[in-house]
Amino acid sequence: MNQEEKSKKMGQLIAMCWADEGFKKKLLADATATLKAAGEEVPAGLTYKAVENTDKLVHLVIPPKPAELSEEDLAAAVGGYTSPALYFRKWLQETTSCNCAGNLLCDVFCS
Fold it and tell me: d(Cα 109, Cα 100) in Å, to the nearest integer?
């Protein structure tokens, strides 16, 4: 699945939440089970949590700190460019054998 297809799937998921309050409540209560029930592939051992931003609450996602950064990662940080996805990807590669190809929420970080 390419980036355009992933973005489209994410947009469809958000649209479903906006159109169907029951679906949104299920997703917020148990995202992993709801995604599985919707036909999404969820790798074993991986759990999803859905949260909802409001006009008064915005969630910041802080990924786990990677065990080690490469020279390239350090150079990017020194240059002022840091990306949570960079650190999350590194952590995911170090801690799992992530095989989430086709999953709308994960393979952005694992591809």
Answer: 10
Structural domain boundaries enclosing 40: 3-110
* Residue 69, token pair as written in the block: 């950064």
pLDDT in tens, 5-42: 777 888 888 899 999 999 999 999 999 999 889 888 88
**Number of independent structural domains in the chain:** 1
Angle (CA) 101-24-12 rounded to 5° is: 45
Q: Report the C-alpha gap between 17 and 23 in whole angstroms.
A: 6
A 10 A CB-CB count for 30 gives: 16
